[in-house]
Write a structure and sequence with these properties.
140 residues; mainly beta; Immunoglobulin-like; 4-stranded antiparallel sheet; 7% helix
Length: 140
């Protein structure tokens, strides 16, 4: 079987009774603000992952691969200073988004990525399915 599995927190209400309220709030207000939306398409020999990351530069996006886990992080920092008459204003905006996926049946050595017009695209080639031909075991 091929696929990538997003890592999610457990929904154990005894561990955190407020998690149900957090989930309700995320669904009502349009999702998790510390995450980003993705699409995953099965193209036969590979999975195509598209992540919407508008406003980020290529240098702000980091893709890390550790054993069977792929993590996409996007961070940006903006600082503006404006001086008018007696007013002084300095604002800092920092944003950080992250998603992690388990790589089940993916050829991690041949993953490729591109970024254009705010969309990150990863091509995740599938591993060849193991051939389970029947064979006879000799008794010694």
């Amino acid at each position: 079987m091929f696929g990538i599995t997003p890592y999610r927190r457990s929904n154990d209400l005894f561990a955190n009774p407020w998690r149900a309220m957090d989930a309700f709030e995320r669904s009502f207000f349009g999702g998790d603000r510390a995450s980003f939306r993705i699409d995953i398409e099965d193209e036969g020999g590979a999975l195509l992952l598209s992540a919407d990351l508008p406003g980020f530069e290529k240098e702000d996006i980091h893709i890390d691969l550790s054993s069977d886990r792929l993590t996409i992080r996007a961070e940006h920092h903006t600082e503006t200073e404006q001086k008018e008459k007696n007013y002084l204003r300095c604002e800092r905006i920092c944003g950080s988004y992250s998603r992690s996926f388990g790589l089940d049946g993916i050829d991690a050595d041949n993953i490729s990525a591109s970024y254009h017009n705010g969309v990150l695209k990863l091509t995740l080639p599938k591993l060849a399915a193991p051939q389970n031909a029947p064979r006879r075991i000799e008794i010694q």
